[in-house]
Amino acid sequence: QVQLVESGGGLVQAGGSLRLSCTASGSIFTILALGWYRQVPGKQREFVARISTGGGTNYAASVKDRFTIFRGNTNNTVYLQMNSLKPEDTAIYYCTAERRSGPFMPAYWGQGTHVTVSS
Questions:
Q1: Which string of DSSP letters, residue by residue, matches 72-94?
Q2: What is the model's pLDDT at position 46?
Q3: Could you tell me the pLDDT band of residue 28, with boundaries at 50, 70 and 90?
Q4: Cα-flanking dihedrals φ and ψ of residue 2, to 5°?
Q5: How many other CB atoms sit within 10 Å of the CB of residue 24?
Q6: Which pairing describes strands 67-71 and 91-99: parallel, antiparallel, or unpaired?
Q7: What Å distances lie between residue 57 and 31, 38, 116, CA to CA?
Q8: Strand 77-82 versus strand 67-71 pairing type
Q9: 59: which strand partners?
Q10: C-beta separation of 67 from 80 below 8 A
Q11: Angle, CA of 111, 46 and 99, to the nearest 5°
Q12: For residues 95 and 36, is the Cβ–Cβ distance under 8 A?
């Protein structure tokens, strides 16, 4: 089992920046990738970004030129640097972990951290 804990959410003005953090614990050796999804109330969760153990990254088209995902060097932490934030980025952001047997299919989820972007 893997446990994920997010932090770093908050309120920011449009055009501003925010950095989210996620720390993973448990059976870390089973993880293929860490990533982020987000959800607006009443809508489906959508993929935001992921980073594999090999360092490869993937981004949703809506955030590709504005967000950056990266891992800590000596721990089990993943970050999401969000720049040029827009009101439509407002959502609950969830940290995710994929098992090696299920690429692009998150098996573990954090409880979420709120991001609000004001205009």
A1: -SSSSEEEEEE-S--GGG-EEEE
A2: 97
A3: confident
A4: -125, 135
A5: 22
A6: unpaired
A7: 15, 17, 25
A8: antiparallel
A9: 49
A10: yes
A11: 65
A12: yes
Q: Tokens in use for 27? A: 């059976």
Mean pLDDT of the chain: 95
User: Which residue bears the tokens 């955030």?
Assistant: 63
- On the question of pLDDT at 15 being above 80, the answer is yes
What's the length of the chain?
Answer: 119
In sequence order, the 6+-apart residues with CB closer than 8 A to the CB of 76 are 23, 24, 25, 28
Could you count the other beta carbons within 10 Å of the beta carbon of residue 62? Answer: 14
pLDDT tens digits along 74-105: 669 999 999 999 999 999 999 999 999 998 99
